[in-house]
Write a structure and sequence with these properties.
The complex is a heterodimer. Chain A is α/β, with parallel strands linked by helices. Helices cover 42% and strands 22% of the residues of chain A. The longest helix of chain A has 21 residues. Chain B is α+β, with helices and mostly antiparallel strands. Chain B starts with 5 loop residues before the first strand and ends with a helix. The chains are: A alpha/beta, B alpha+beta. At the A-B interface, helix 2, strand 2 and strand 3 of A face strand 1, strand 2 and strand 10 of B. Chain B: It comes from Brassicogethes aeneus.
């Protein structure tokens, strides 16, 4: 059953990364179900899948909402491997979470071994402007340095929530089309092989 | 059909058995009961599923191994699909070197299970592989290698499975090195047993010692018949168990009993509370509730054999007895409203009262009604009879009482015998009841008639403050009649109504009589003012006839209105003796006028002083005469024509009365004539006798003698007197007087023995003149008598009449033309 949509419609695998409590699950649930969850419950690893219309094309988005807590840091590599795009989230009200994005970025690049992996830097909790600790400029600068877009969102007000997911999907789609063209030359990559195998299975 | 449920979110997406899993998606049903099924990787999780919303279910994962779909089934949507998968993790022991994403319970779950081959199973090739996570699930392996197993020690060991499972990512070079390592280890194993013993000498010896000790102990025990001991111990424990069980059983039984008792008590709370409840309700007067409860109790527990119920019932019965007694008292506590009494009877019937409450009520009501009449009667009887109003008030009271209470009694009786009160009656009670009704009516009739008729202080003595009985009789009759109407309305037996009708008739007759008598009294008391009334038709009467007429008319009106006005009560008219007596009374009444009129004439000197204005006897005579004639001619005629008593006006009485009046009239006329003619006669007598001496004198006859003038003047005076009273009397009275006077004159003339010529002539002239004068009164016998007198005188004449008498007469008439005019006026 899971195979069928993979054949018919494109499936984009998105992974939510970021420190604990920055609002990864909140963003995901807001995007998926238009609901805002007030109470905080640490996530282990949640899977979501949704059919969306991306620029007139039916696609499926598969979201892996990961654990932000350090306890689970060891198993991140496994998750990251399957991801096709990443939303790296921090809270604009918490500087530590912003600093941690650096670490996530590095880990993703290491696992994926790809500088151009679809990636968005997301500053969440934009509704709490009065508690802001990380300036837009600061975050923007970092994104520029990495060569990725920076978007500020609010899971509470739903501001830019759809935007970040759709932007990321567009990047993934663009990236896949590019890969299809140069499919032959890039057969070396280990992950690539493994992924293909998975899709076939 | 609702759309099929779709799972598109799962949190977390993997976990050990018992993990709390939040499943999100669409169309999970509208309510918790819509959720029919929930499987995760084919494992049913419905039991722990908690339906949160249409989009959310929370459950606990089951014993799942490997990845699988999450399928939700709903009542309307059927079996759904899953977009996400759950990865069930197995509880595995993890070595200290193994990387794990979760916190590992380091204490082995199964303590006795030790790793079968320390280190060997994990990495028999001696290759420290980092990433050896099984990316292929066990299920997939089973598909690829049916009947095989990846376990080392298994008989169906499949090397390919093992390699795929553990060294999937290892390069071929490494595997070759691993093979060499394995071969080396297999070689080493041959020496391993010896080296093992060497390494562990002391523990092994300990073990051997222990085994020997065990063997010895076992063999020792064998001889002490351990089985017997065991048996005994088992038996003991069994006994103990039975004892314990029995104790528990007994305890349980007792608990059960007391619980039953409590249940019973609470179930029959109603029964046990009832006495108190009844008391309370009696105070509140809510008998309906008591009756309902009582009936319920009787239905429920009436045939019970349980002593406590019987006791309770007995108590309730006592309460009910009390209530019954109270109700009996209430029942006979008069005055009581009929509805209330009926209600109490109903209560008593419902309460199964042994006595016939309705009959008691009827009897007591009868006694009440009857006694009240007697009491009122006695009260009245003890009063002084000076107070006439008391009589009326007694009648009013007793009638009001009967009106108020009798219908209730009758209705009660009717209800009783109609069976409305749900009581069966006996035949003899019907007659008894009739007797009651009869005795009440009799009592009433007796009381009333005693007071009004038979007593010397009856109606005839009643005098209202203004002395007019007429206003009272209708009231009394009206009261009695209202009772009669009541009886008619109540449809009483005819004999009862007849009793009352009889009373009413008697009373009416009595009343009529009394009224007549009263009127007689009244007529007697009419004062005579002697004021002359003039009217166009009749002049010269006083007030008396008018008053008399008015009284008679009044009384007839009263009788008609108060006695004969009611339809269907003509019993009085049918009673001939009553009619006869009425006629008698009526006549008496009419003839009272004669008596009264006579009386007016009798009292001459005594009352003269009292009535200074009383006219002379002559005038009174005239007035009375006039009155008498008026009554005779007018009043009686009017009465004859117009009187309406409600029964035929007795013509005989009227004619009798008329006759009587006529007689009286004659008497009065005679008396008056006597009175009036006497002086004239005296004058004539005196003149004639006086002048007898002078009969011899010879005076030429030139004039009439003075006595004739005197006579004529007297006549004129009488005429005037009569005329002042009534013109009508002139014709009656004056000719008579003239007649009497002429007759007397004739007698005197005839008694004269000797008369000279002159005297005779003179007398002849006188008488001629008188005759001329009296001829003014027609239809008189006076002329006849005067002719006789003249004849007599002529016989005395010696010579024929020479003088011109006519001339003299003419002259005198001319002189006395005033007198002539007086009488010729009419």
């Amino acid at each position: 059953m899971a195979k069928k949509p993979a054949v018919q419609t494109a499936l984009h695998k998105v992974i939510m990364v970021g420190s604990g409590g920055v609002g990864k699950s909140a963003l995901t649930l807001q995007f998926m179900y238009d609901e805002f969850v007030e109470n905080y419950e640490p996530t282990k690893a949640d899977s979501y899948r949704k059919k969306v219309l991306l620029d007139g094309e039916d696609v499926q988005i598969d979201i892996l909402d990961t654990a932000g807590q350090e306890d689970y840091a060891a198993i991140r590599d496994n998750y990251f491997r399957s991801g096709e795009g990443f939303l790296c989230i921090f809270s604009i009200t918490e500087d530590e979470s912003f600093q941690a994005t650096q670490e996530f970025r590095e880990q993703i690049l290491r696992v994926k071994n790809d500088e151009n992996i679809p990636f968005l830097l997301v500053g969440n909790k934009s509704d709490l402007q009065d508690k802001r600790k990380v300036t837009f400029q600061e975050a923007s600068d970092r994104a520029n340095k990495w060569g990725v877009p920076y978007v500020e969102t609010s899971a509470k007000t739903r501001e830019h929530v759809d935007k970040v997911f759709y932007d990321l999907m567009r990047e993934i789609r663009a990236r896949k089309m590019e890969e299809n063209k140069t499919n032959n030359g890039r057969g070396k990559d280990k992950n690539k092989k493994k992924k293909l195998k998975c899709v076939i299975l | 059909m609702a759309p099929a449920p779709v799972v598109n979110g799962i949190s977390p997406n993997e976990g050990f058995p018992g993990t709390r899993v939040i499943i999100r998606g669409e169309n999970f049903g509208k309510k918790p009961t819509d959720l029919f099924g929930l499987t995760i990787c084919g494992v049913n999780c419905l039991l722990s599923a908690e339906w949160v919303s249409e989009n959310k279910i929370i459950t606990l994962s089951g014993a799942i191994n490997g990845k699988g779909d999450v399928i939700v089934t709903t009542r309307l949507g059927g079996q759904g699909t899953s977009d996400v998968q759950f990865n069930g993790l197995q509880l595995t022991t993890v070595g200290p070197m193994k990387e794990s994403a979760i916190w590992v319970e380091e204490t082995p779950i199964y303590t006795w299970e030790r790793p079968s081959n320390c280190g060997g199973t994990q990495d028999p090739l001696g290759l420290l592989v980092e990433d050896n996570d099984p990316t292929i699930s066990k299920r997939e392996f089973e598909e690829y290698f049916p009947g095989k197993c990846g376990e080392f020690s298994s008989e169906n060991f499949s090397p390919s499975w093992f390699l795929l499972e553990n060294y999937q990512l290892t390069s071929f070079e490494d595997l070759k090195a691993g093979l060499q390592f394995l071969q080396r280890r297999v070689k080493d194993q041959k020496n391993e047993r010896l080296s093992f013993l060497k390494n562990n000498v002391s523990p092994i010896i300990d073990q051997i010692d222990t085994l020997v000790n065990l063997q010895q102990a076992y063999e020792h025990d064998k001889f002490i018949e351990p089985i017997l001991n065991l048996e005994k111990a088992i038996k003991d424990s069994e006994d103990k168990t039975v004892e314990l069980f029995n104790n528990v059983l007994i305890g349980w039984g007792k608990a059960e009993e007391s619980r039953n008792a409590l249940n019973t008590l609470s179930r029959f709370k109603f029964l046990f509370y009832l006495p108190a409840q009844i008391e309370k309700n009696i105070k509140k007067g809510q008998y309906e509730i008591i009756i309902n409860d009582y009936i319920r109790v009787k239905n429920l527990f009436g045939k019970t054999n349980i002593s406590i119920f019987k006791m309770a019932l007995k108590e309730i019965e006592n309460c009910i007895k009390k209530l019954q007694n109270k109700l009996y008292l209430d029942l006979q506590n008069y005055p009581i409203h009929l509805g209330k009494q009926k209600q109490i009877i109903r209560y008593l019937v419902l309460l199964d009262s042994p006595q016939d409450s309705a009959w008691i009520a009827i009897k007591s009501r009868f006694v009440y009604v009857n006694n009240e009449i007697t009491t009122l009667f006695d009260q009245y009887y003890n009063l002084s009879y000076e107070d006439n109003i008391a009589t009326l008030s007694f009648i009013e009271d007793v009638c009001a009482h009967l009106l108020g209470t009798f219908p209730d009694l009758w209705n009660m009786g009717q209800s009783y015998f109609n069976g409305e009160l749900n009581v069966k009656h006996k035949e003899e009670q019907v007659s008894e009841f009739k007797q009651m009704i009869r005795s009440i009516i009799e009592n009433f009739c007796n009381s009333v008639s005693t007071i009004l008729i038979n007593q010397e202080h009856g109606i005839s003595n009643i005098k209202s403050p203004d002395g007019n009985i007429v206003t009272y009789v209708p009231d009394i009759l009206q009261n009695i009649r209202s009772i009669y109407m009541l009886f008619i309305r109540l449809n009483l037996p005819k004999e009862c109504i007849d009793l009352l009708l009889n009373l009413l008739t008697n009373l009416k007759i009595h009343c009529i009589k009394v009224l007549f008598k009263y009127t007689v009294e009244h007529i007697k008391e009419i004062p005579e003012t002697w004021d002359i009334k003039f009217s166009e038709t009749y002049s010269g009467i006083t007030d008396f006839p008018l008053q008399f007429c008015k009284l008679v008319q009044e009384i007839s009106e009263t009788i008609r209105i108060s006695i004969f006005s009611e339809q269907g009560e003509n019993s009085v008219i049918q009673n001939q003796t009553a009619i006869d007596s009425f006629n008698e009374e009526f006549e008496t009444m009419l003839r009272t006028s004669e008596t009264v009129l006579t009386e007016f004439l009798v009292d001459e000197d005594e009352e003269n002083q009292e009535h200074p204005h009383k006219p002379s006897i002559q005038k009174r005579c005239l007035l009375t005469l006039s009155n008498c004639m008026y009554i005779k001619n007018n009043v009686l005629t009017t009465l004859e024509k117009d009187l309406n008593y409600g029964f035929p006006v007795p013509q005989e009485a009227i004619s009798n009365s008329r006759f009587g009046l006529l007689e009286l009239e004659q008497g009065i006329i005679n008396k008056y004539i006597e009175l009036k003619s006497a002086p004239i006669i005296t004058i004539i007598e005196e003149s004639l006798y006086f002048e007898t001496l002078n009969w011899d004198t010879t005076i030429k006859v030139t004039d009439i003698r003075p006595y004739i003038v005197n006579c004529i003047n007297n006549f004129v005076q009488i005429h005037a007197e009569v005329n002042t009273v009534s013109k009508d009397l002139l014709k009656t009275v004056l000719p008579k007087i003239a007649e009497v006077v002429s007759m007397e004159l004739c007698k005197i003339i005839s008694s004269i023995e000797k008369l000279n010529n002159f005297g005779a002539l003179q007398t002849y002239t006188d008488i001629c003149f008188l005759r001329k004068f009296l001829s003014g009164f027609p239809h008189s016998k006076a002329e006849f008598h005067l002719e006789e007198a003249l004849d007599n005188i002529i016989s005395h004449l010696n010579e024929p009449i020479t003088i011109d008498i006519e001339n003299i007469l003419k002259k005198c008439q001319n002189r006395m033309r005033l007198q002539f005019t007086c009488i010729s006026n009419n």
